[in-house]
Structures are given as C-alpha cells and as structure tokens.
C-alpha cells in the first residue's frame, strides 16, 4: 500500500504539473495578445504625434478642405452593407429581412459634437478643432493600412473631434464627444481619488442646473468602491435623485469631502495617488464664513493630506452669473488647481469638467509613465453586442515644456479569441483582474512651475482663469505656436453632405451585399425607433464619464449634504474586494440600497449616448 500511495502522489504531482504548464501556456498566449495590442496602440500614437508636427504646413491646410467624411451627413466612397457573419446592427433590425448597416473599411469618418458644429454646413468654427481634424487626416493612410481586421481604430482629440475607421454612420447625430468617454479619461489621467462636491441649493433649479429629487432614506456605510460599470450606474442613479433646496455652505461641503478622504485613507482603500476635488456651485457662500476662512480651511486640510503623501488639487466651476467667481478662483489657485466659469445657457460644463484630466495627463508624458496604456474592462459592443475591450494611450506635442496633451489613441478588440484561449467568460472576475494588472500606472507626478500651470489655465479658460501670469507672451515655449497660415484653415471640411437631413435608417440601413441604403430596411428601422424611447442626459454623462480610474464620492452642499453624502457614499469596503476597475483606481460612494447588478457597458451608457458604435 505504501508503494501505491507514493505512486498515486507522484501521478497527482505529474498531473498538476501538466495542468500548471497548460495554464501557463494559455496565460502566455493571452499576454502576447495584450502586448501586441499595446505595441500597436503606441505605434498609432507615435503616428499621430508625427503628423501633428505638420499641422501648420500650407499643404496640410489646403488638402484638408472638402476631404473629410462626416459621420452623419456623408456618403462613404466604398461603403458596403455588413454581412451578418461580421456583426448585426440592432437599429437596422439585427438581420431581419436581410437588413444590416453600411460601413466602409477603407475610409475614416469624423465625428464632432453638435454644439461644436456651429459653422455653416455643420462645420466647426473653432480653429483648434478644425486644426485637429486636418492634422489627424494625415494619419488616415496609416489607419487604413493597419486596420485589416475590421476592429475599430480611433483618435479622440482634446478639442472634441474623433477620427475613426471603419467609417460608419452614427445612430444619434452630434451627441458623441470623445472627451466624455471612459477610454479617453482613463488614458489621460491615470489613477486618482476624486471627490465631486455639488451645490444642491435652491438656486441650482434655475435653468435646469439640477434635475430629479433627493431621497433622504437611510445612511450608508462610509468608504469608497471601485469604478466598475455597476457602481457607476449606481452613482448615476443617485445623482438623478438629487433635488435642489436650501442655501450654500462651502465650508460644510469641503469639510465633508476631506473627512471622507481621510477616512478612506485610514481604511487603506484608496488609489494611494493624487486627490482631485471637483467643486461645483452657482452661488455665494451663505453660511456666514468669509472667503479667507474657507480658503484657509481648504489649505489646512490639503496640508494634512500632504502629510499622508496625498497631493490634493481643487478644481472649481462657477455655474451661472450669480456664482462667486473670486473665491472660487482663489480656492483653485491656492491648491494648484484650475477654475472655470460656465455659462447658464451653454453646454460648457462638458468641456470645463474635462479640465482636470488635462492637468493629470501631464504626469503621464514622461518617465515611468511614458508608455502608459489603459485597458477598459470587457463590455458588450453596441454594434452586434459582442464582448470586447479597448486599449488607449495619451498623445502629446513634445515640442512644448511640459508636453502638451493632444488627445488619446485607441484600438478595439473582440474578446472571443481571449475567451477561447482561456476557456473563460469575458465578464468573469479573474478576467477583469488581468485588465486591472495591465492598466496600473505609476502615480502621475504633477510638478509644474507657476508659469507652466498658468499656461495650462490660459489654454483651458483664457487669461481670466490665470492666477499669477496672464500675458500670452509670457507663455512662450509653454503654449504651442500658432500656425502662421491660420487664415488658410478650411471653412468646409466635408467631402460631401449627401445624407444631410436624413435619419439613421435612411442613411445606414441596407440589404446585405448592397452598397446603398434600402427603403425597406429604412422603414424597418423607423418601426423599431417608434417602439423604443431613450432619454439621454449628457450633463450627467460627463460627470460619470470623467470618473474613470479614480476613487469617487459625490457630496451635495449644504442643506442636504449629509443626506446626499451618505447616500452617495456607500458600498462598503467589501465592494472593494468585489469590484475592480481596469485602472486600479476609482471608488464611488453610493446609497446603501444600491446593490451590485449588471448594467450598461462602460463605453455605451444609455445616459451618455445611444450611437451605433462600440465605443
């Protein structure tokens, strides 16, 4: 029996060794896929940086006019109706009656938000935005050559444009803004702890600054949780329940924010990285404290966090004409942050709230983070519903000091090959852990001079936002040089506008094998739209979009701040173990009744956009 026992043990050890070897081999295959994707996206970013150097060439500007295809108004030169074996588009009937959607694998398309397409013929009027479309056009041959498998490749600029291949029609025109997307934010800011302090006073009801109601039920357990798609949905739901009322207490809002941060640090459930406080208000402080008291308090608490090795930056946003701009600006200046004024009747909040990642992007441009790539947790692509993921990397102009953040280069990948290799579901916790590991960046170190910081403030919001320097001549070498032929920028970018005024079905829905839209399929698409109703909240979308790769708590100030804070701050430490974010860095504080549940994919949340795209 002794010999049999020894033989059995030896056999078990041999079998285990074989199993371990097989697992190791599978992991190596997956690692090779990841590494190749990372190599490819870094090469794509290098190409964008290369063509950017030619942005001012007169030839670049001359050839840009009438040479770009718009995602909503253009017919693509080599468009084909997708075969059902490639993917099925639900908006065109998911293959019913042989219907699917048109795309062009040989061409790039350009998307810009409607609010930026404010020129004649749906063209942008902003020079920097036009410039980004023109220089990214120079990368089109590279994108066509390196997009053989049909997976999406795209570049989102910091100015708001997106260039993508394959070219396809957007289901909802003018809604998409790349700067709101998790892949963009994750690649541009790295790990961080984020606190959003929202004014919920009565005046926030003006101009629809806030919607919904406050549910005052129950207090949550303190602590932060990672920014999984489930947790972000819970955060969105909580924000939608806020109702304005009462006065405004800057002190109370900041006190609650710092208390939550300190508690989370004590519980060792933070990113261990930079802290960003986003402070939004539309009015003056009404609790009797003067601005010096508030600023001194903020400085004291940031100094206390500094003793815990946490660099804290406050980003302030004045909403509307009644906001106390002076104190908001002073708060930001005192912490090395950025202040911006946001008009009531505009959509500037989207652009303004994206300023925080532009600062943190500077910490990813060199040193340990120079070749940083960010992965998005696997999600269901909007087109076809297949599981996929995205890998992104920031793009810079290295001719300035510090390097100027230009945008984000991204590649998509289907998960089916990874699932087959590992024999594992894309949504499993072990699969998510792999993405967490691959996306962990070093903590971005923000070490700017006052002049460099004011240069960034100037770029974001003009001279009124600077703290020490305000003359543009002082920013030489910090700001990019203006192109000498700026007057030669084209005022008509689109190659054609044949599809202008048509709905998605009329532009995109087709019979498989054809090269043009089909009236039959367009009618089917119209009937599908009639039976569905989706409401999009883009203002809330930006709030959720920006909180990627971070730890987050949303705090309302002041009258309901305790209720909102406790509701917004739940999920308990055990959720830190249950959920993970691909950038190992974001926790959300939410209501106690918000249990973990499946929700919209991170790149296509219903609250943010409903376009037919897998981004």
Furnish the topology, listing elements before pairings.
Blueprint lengths: L1 H51 L5 H7 L15 E2 L17 E6 L4 E3 L15 H11 L2 H6 L7 E5 L4 E4 L1 E2 L13 H8 L2 E8 L29 H12 L9 H17 L8 E7 L9 H16 L5 E8 L5 H10 L4 E4 L5 H6 L1 H7 L12 E2 L3 E2 L6 E11 L6 E11 L1 H7 L6 H10 L11 H12 L42 H5 E3 L7 H12 L7 H9 L3 E8 L3 H8 L5 H5 L9 E2 L26
Parallel strand pairs: 7-8, 7-16, 8-9, 9-10, 16-17
Antiparallel strand pairs: 1-2, 2-6, 2-15, 3-5, 4-5, 4-14, 11-13, 12-13, 13-14
Helix pairs in contact: 2-3, 5-11, 6-17, 7-8, 8-9
The number of helical segments is: 19
Radius of gyration, rounded? Answer: 25 Å
Annotation, overall tally of beta strands: 17
Give the distance, in angstroms, between the N- and C-terminal Cα atoms. Answer: 62 Å
Question: Spans of 5+ residues with little confidence (pLDDT < 50)?
Answer: 202-223, 533-550, 557-614
Global shape: globular
Structural class: alpha/beta
Percent in helix: 25-40%
Proportion of strand residues: 5-15%
What is the makeup of the main sheet? 7 strands, antiparallel
What average pLDDT do the residues reach? 78
Transmembrane segments: 540-564
Protein name: VWFA domain-containing protein
Pfam families: VWA (PF00092)
Signal peptide: 1-21
Short description:
InterPro entries: Ca_channel_alpha-2/delta, VWF_A, vWFA_dom_sf. By secondary structure, the protein is α/β, with parallel strands linked by helices.
Account of the 3D structure:
The structure is a single chain. The protein has helices at 2-52, 58-64, 127-137, 140-145, 182-189, 229-240, 250-266, 291-306, 325-334, 348-353, 355-361, 416-422, 429-438, 450-461, 504-508, 519-530, 538-546, 561-568, 574-578, and strands spanning 80-81, 99-104, 109-111, 153-157, 162-165, 167-168, 192-199, 275-281, 312-319, 339-342, 374-375, 379-380, 387-397, 404-414, 509-511, 550-557, 588-589. A hairpin with a 4-residue loop joins strand 4 (153-157) and strand 5. It has 19 helices and 17 strands. Helix 6 (229-240) crosses helix 17 (538-546). Strands 3, 4, 5, 11, 12, 13 and 14 form a 7-stranded antiparallel β-sheet that branches. A 6-stranded parallel β-sheet has the order 10-9-8-7-16-17, with helices on both faces. The radius of gyration is 25 Å and the shape is globular. The protein has a domain at 41-85 and 102-182 and 366-456 and 481-488. The model is unreliable at 202-223, 533-550 and 557-614 (pLDDT under 50). By secondary structure, it is of the alpha/beta class.
């Amino acid at each position: 029996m002794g010999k049999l026992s020894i033989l059995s043990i030896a056999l078990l050890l041999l079998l285990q060794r074989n199993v371990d070897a097989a697992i190791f081999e599978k992991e190596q295959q997956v690692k090779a896929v990841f590494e190749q994707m990372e190599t490819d996206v870094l090469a794509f970013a290098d190409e964008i940086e290369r063509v950017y150097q030619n942005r001012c060439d007169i030839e670049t500007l001359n050839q840009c006019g009438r040479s770009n295809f718009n995602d909503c108004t253009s017919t693509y030169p080599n468009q084909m109706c997708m075969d059902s074996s490639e993917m099925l588009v639900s908006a065109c009937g998911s293959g019913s009656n042989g219907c699917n959607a048109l795309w062009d694998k040989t061409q790039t398309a350009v998307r810009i938000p409607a609010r930026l397409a404010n020129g004649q013929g749906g063209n942008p009027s902003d020079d920097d935005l036009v410039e980004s479309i023109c220089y990214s056009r120079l990368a089109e041959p590279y994108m066509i050559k390196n997009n053989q498998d049909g997976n999406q490749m795209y570049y989102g600029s910091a100015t708001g444009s997106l260039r993508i291949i394959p070219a396809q029609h957007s289901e909802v025109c003018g809604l998409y803004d790349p700067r709101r997307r998790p892949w963009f934010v994750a690649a541009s800011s790295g790990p961080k702890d984020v606190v959003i302090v929202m004014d919920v006073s009565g005046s926030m009801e003006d101009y629809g600054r806030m919607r919904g109601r406050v549910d005052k039920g129950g207090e949550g357990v303190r602590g932060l949780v990672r920014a999984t798609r489930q947790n972000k949905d819970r955060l969105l739901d909580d924000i939608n329940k806020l109702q304005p009322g009462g006065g405004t207490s800057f002190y109370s809002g900041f006190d609650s924010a710092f208390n939550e941060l300190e508690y989370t640090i004590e519980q060792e459930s933070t990113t261990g990285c930079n802290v960003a406080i986003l402070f939004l208000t539309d009015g003056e402080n009404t609790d009797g404290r003067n601005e010096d008291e508030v600023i001194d308090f903020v400085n004291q608490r940031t100094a206390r966090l500094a003793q815990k090795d946490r660099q804290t930056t406050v980003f302030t946003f004045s909403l509307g004409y009644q906001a106390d701009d002076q104190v908001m600006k002073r708060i930001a200046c005192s912490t090395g942050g950025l202040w911006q004024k946001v008009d009531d009747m505009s959509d500037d909040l989207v652009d303004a709230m994206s300023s925080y990642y532009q600062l943190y992007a500077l910490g990813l441009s060199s040193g340990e983070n120079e070749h940083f790539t960010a992965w998005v947790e696997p999600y269901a692509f909007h087109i076809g519903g297949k599981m996929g993921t995205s890998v992104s990397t920031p793009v810079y102009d290295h001719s300035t000091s510090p390097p100027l953040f230009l945008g984000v280069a991204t590649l998509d990948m289907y998960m089916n090959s990874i699932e087959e290799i590992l024999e594992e579901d894309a949504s499993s916790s072990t699969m998510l852990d792999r993405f967490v590991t691959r996306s962990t960046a070093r903590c971005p170190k923000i070490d700017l001079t006052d002049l460099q910081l004011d240069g960034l403030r100037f770029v974001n919001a003009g001279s009124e936002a600077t703290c020490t320097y305000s003359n543009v001549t002082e920013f030489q070498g910090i700001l990019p040089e203006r192109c000498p032929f700026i007057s030669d920028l084209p005022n008509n970018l689109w190659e054609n506008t044949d599809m202008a005024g048509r709905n998605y079905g009329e532009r995109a829905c087709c019979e498989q094998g054809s090269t043009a839209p089909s009236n039959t399929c367009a009618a089917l698409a119209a009937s599908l739209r009639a039976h569905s109703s989706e409401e999009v909240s883009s203002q809330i979308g930006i709030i959720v979009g920006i909180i990627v790769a971070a730890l987050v708590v949303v705090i309302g100030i002041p009258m309901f701040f305790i209720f909102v804070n406790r509701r917004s701050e739940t999920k308990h430490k055990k959720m830190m173990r249950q959920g993970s974010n691909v950038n190992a860095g974001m926790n959300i504080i939410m209501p106690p009744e918000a249990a973990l549940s499946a929700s919209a994919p991170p790149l296509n949340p219903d609250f943010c956009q409903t376009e037919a795209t897998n981004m």
